[in-house]
Automatic annotation (TrEMBL):
InterPro entries associated with the record: ArsR-like_HTH, HTH_ArsR_DNA-bd_dom, Metal_resp_trans_reg, WH-like_DNA-bd_sf, WH_DNA-bd_sf
Limits of the HTH arsR-type domain: 9-104
Record-linked NCBIfam families: HTH_metalloreg
Molecular-function GO term, any one: DNA-binding transcription factor activity
Phylogenetic classification of the source organism: Bacteria, Bacillati, Bacillota, Bacilli, Bacillales
Domain of life assignment: Bacteria
Pfam families found in the cross-reference section: HTH_20
PROSITE patterns given in the database record: HTH_ARSR_2
Protein name: Transcriptional repressor PagR
Key word Transcription regulation present: yes
UniProt keyword annotation of ATP-binding present: no
Provenance organism: Paenibacillus nuruki
Length: 104
């Protein structure tokens, strides 16, 4: 039996991709990421207005996305904008939702 397709010698190589997928595995986080693809960057207040959920909830989801390197921040005076930090994420979202749904 050929077992070369399942190389368990270096399972560490799967840690980072698995963590990215875990971070994306919540509907609100998927929505935030797709919104950032559409807008390129935006702040928490804008997200709160669009999603109609508490700012603290959005901030918790953004922290999860930041901790895995999916999003990063850009400060402009007092305003903090969020933007995608990992180009692979945009590819994943396009696969899941289709190009048309992400660009409009």
């Amino acid at each position: 039996m050929d077992t070369t397709a399942f190389d368990v010698k270096d399972l560490k190589q799967f840690d980072e991709p698995a963590n990215l997928l875990k971070a994306l595995s919540h509907p609100i986080r998927l929505c935030i990421v797709r919104g950032l693809i559409r807008k390129r960057k935006c702040n928490v207040s804008y997200m709160q207005e669009c999603l109609d959920i508490p700012q603290s909830t959005i901030s918790q989801h953004l922290q999860k996305l930041r901790s895995t390197g999916i999003v990063t921040t850009e400060r402009s005076g007092l305003e903090v904008n969020y933007l995608l930090a990992d180009p692979r994420i945009e590819q994943i979202i396009h696969i899941l939702f289709g190009e048309e749904d992400c660009e409009s």
